Amino acid sequence: MKVGLDVGGTKTDAVAVDDSGAIAGRVRLATGWGPDAVTGTVLDAVSALGREAGVDVSAICSVGIGIPGQIEPGTGRVVHAVNLGVEELDLVAATQSRLGVPVGVENDVKAAALGAFALHGGSGSMAYLNLGTGIAAGIVSEGVLWRGARGTAGEVGHISVDPNGPLCRCGQRGCIEALAGGGSIAERWGHAAALPVRDVFDAADAGDARARELRAGLARGVAAAVRVLVLTADVDAVVLGGGVTALGPRLMADVAAELAASAEASPFMRSLRLQERVELLPAGSPAAALGAALIGAARDPEGALTRG
C-alpha cells in the first residue's frame, strides 16, 4: 500500500493506493498552519486513513507528500511555502522516522502532473496546467517528470504575453498569471465574493464591461499557456486542473474560442490542432495525492511505480 498526501493551504487530501494502482481509501482534513502543524497534519492524515477509511496502516510501504513551495533538489526540504506559514521545513526528517517508511516530497503541481498523467492513461507525453491562485505546469513524458536544470520547467505563469498588461507579483507586466491567475483576477475585480472568478463570469454574463474584460483576459492567458506548452515541449495533451477549472464548460468554451481564433489566423497554428489537445481534469480527481503516492513509491526500491 502506498500513501499520497496533497497538502493544501486549507485542506489536505490523502489517498492509499494498492498494488493494482486503485485507490483503496481517501480522507480529507484541515491543514495546520506553520511547520509543526504541517508536520502534524501529515502524521494525522496517515493515521486517519486507517481510522476513517479502513486502510491497513501496517501494509503501508511508502508515503509521498505534495506540498506548495520550492523543494530543494534531492532533499525533503520545503522552502517558501508561504500559504502554509512555512519558510523552511525538512519534511522527510520530521516525518520519516515517525512513520517508519520511506517518505518522498515534491512540489504539489509537479506531483499533480504525475497523478494526472497516470489518470490520463500513463503513456506518451502530457503537460498538467494548474489554474489556481497562481499558474504553473508540470511536464511528464513516459512517466518521467521533467524538472529542468534548476527545477523551474513548467513555470509558464511568469511568461509575459502582453508588455502593456496588468502588473504581476513577479514585477513584470502581462504575465500569464497576471491575466489568468485566480488571485490576480480576484484582486483586480475588487468585489467581495466567496468565489471571485465565478463572480466575474456571472457578472460578465450579465453584461458587466469590467467583468467581460477580466474574463477575456483569463481565456487569453490560458490559451497562451497552452500554446507555450505545445510549442516548447510538443506534448500530446495539455490537461487543465486547479480551482479555476471548477467553471468547467464555461471556461473551456472561452479557451476553445481563443485557440480557434489563433488557428483561424495562422495555418501553422491550425496544423497543431490545439483544441483537440486540451482536456479538463475530471472534477474531484485526486491527481496531486495520487502523484504524491507515486513520488513516495519511488523512494521504496521494492515498490516503485514510476521513474523520476
Automatic annotation (TrEMBL):
UniProt cross-references to SUPFAM superfamilies, sorted A to Z: Actin-like ATPase domain
Pfam families noted in UniProt: ROK
Gene3D superfamilies (alphabetical): 3.30.420.40
Transmembrane segments: none
Family of this protein: Belongs to the ROK (NagC/XylR) family.
Name of the featured protein: ROK family protein
Species the sequence originates in: Microbacterium gallinarum
